[in-house]
From TrEMBL:
It comes from the Eukaryota. This is Trypsin II-P29. It comes from Drosophila madeirensis. Residues 97-291 form the Peptidase S1 domain. InterPro entries: Peptidase_S1, Peptidase_S1_PA, Peptidase_S1_PA_chymotrypsin, Trypsin_dom.
């Protein structure tokens, strides 16, 4: 009702001014006319925005061939400085094939040693080396001599060390260096994912609390001082890590994925990693023994 009365007043003032032949001054909102002058309020609409509003998507620059398998996580890219593109070759990543059971991943740390997750092997009995094969590079297959699982040795309980019968001969397969400083919260890292095609995510180390929330429904998963948490994607389809996948910081192996992903769409997801630095002394002694 008030709006109708206002419109009638404006219309009547317009008619009176038109009949008198005097132009009606127009004022922007916020300007005050002289006392007694007829006026119209003019409001300028600067933008007409459709509802619901969706901001335009910027076209990403074409990526190079080596980056074609990078997973882009916008919530990570926008909030944190990500590490540089990985320069270390992925030829240190190997696949572990059992006669039965889950296919896992590992990292070649010497010509005869592969570091992986202890979760790749049976809990109630020791693994039989003859039941596993390791694929190096594109197709070379290697038999095992020994499988050492922590904590039966000085190795961390979440790690397993596989000793190949013979040294890797493929020149393109290059062992990765071990972490020489402990990973800390905020460190930029490269999370390798090999559940399907080899992929990677540039991300960072986060509080173990995030992994505690991610793995809350998994009774067998628990967090110890020899583990750390790394931020995974907020899209479940992009969480392609698997047990044994490596995590690299400054071109050095700093983590081994323990359980694989437990991602939920739209959530802040984390993956648990065994801390390679915690076992570096023992691993270096094994590397010296099995070069």
């Amino acid at each position: 009702m008030l709006l109708i009365r206002l419109l009638l007043v404006l219309f009547w003032n317009t008619v009176r001014a038109t009949q008198s032949g005097k132009p009606i001054p127009q004022f922007m909102v916020g300007e005050v006319p002289a006392k007694g002058e007829p006026y119209q309020i003019v409001r300028i609409i600067e933008y007409v925005v459709p509802h619901p509003y969706e901001p335009p998507v910027k076209n990403r620059e074409a990526t190079d061939v080596e980056d074609s398998l990078e997973i882009i996580a916008p919530h990570i890219e926008n909030q944190f400085m990500t590490t540089a593109k990985p320069t270390v070759s992925t030829n240190f990543i190997v696949k572990i094939y059992p006669l039965m059971g889950l296919v896992c991943t590992g990292a070649l740390i010497s010509r005869r040693l592969v570091l992986t997750s202890a979760q790749c092997f049976p809990v109630n009995r020791g693994p039989v080396p003859e039941q596993y094969m390791v694929q190096v590079a594109s197709s070379a297959m290697y038999e095992l001599d020994t499988i050492v699982i922590g904590p039966s040795s000085d190795l961390d309980r979440d790690m397993a060390l596989m000793v190949l019968r013979i040294s890797v001969e493929e020149p393109e397969a290059q062992p990765v260096a071990l972490c020489d400083v402990p990973p800390k919260r905020g460190d930029n890292v490269v999370m390798y994912m090999s559940k399907q095609l080899p992929r990677f995510l540039r991300t960072h180390v986060v509080s173990n609390r995030i992994c505690k929330n991610t793995f809350a429904s998994i009774d067998a998963a628990y967090i110890t001082e020899t583990m750390f948490c790394s931020h995974n994607s907020n899209k479940r389809k992009d969480c392609q890590t698997t047990m044994g996948d490596p995590l690299v910081h400054e071109e050095r192996l700093c983590g081994i994925n323990i359980y694989g992903p437990r991602c939920v769409d739209g959530a802040i997801n984390g993956d648990l990693y065994a801390n390679v630095f915690k076992a570096e002394e023992h691993l270096q002694s094994m590397i010296g023994r099995y070069k």
